[in-house]
Specification:
By secondary structure, the chain is mainly α. The protein is built from four helices and no strands. The longest helix is centred in the first third of the chain and has 21 residues.
Length: 81
Amino acid sequence: MDPAERIRLARLERQVAFLYRHFGLDPALADVFGVPDGLPPEFVAALRRQDLITAIRLYRQATGAGLADAKETVERIARGI
């Protein structure tokens, strides 16, 4: 990478960091795909630490899904992370 590219990359990283702070977003969640909207950050945290029981409980609380449906959905989401 040449010096101009390094400067451009550093500038872009600063801009992205600013946007995260401005919008109150957690940068650690940037690489999470396939998680339905409306689920709390604790749900994603539980998935990251592979605590499926907690993730299923949180999913059920957020969506009102039954146990079997929640288990199946959370396991599917966990495979994608």
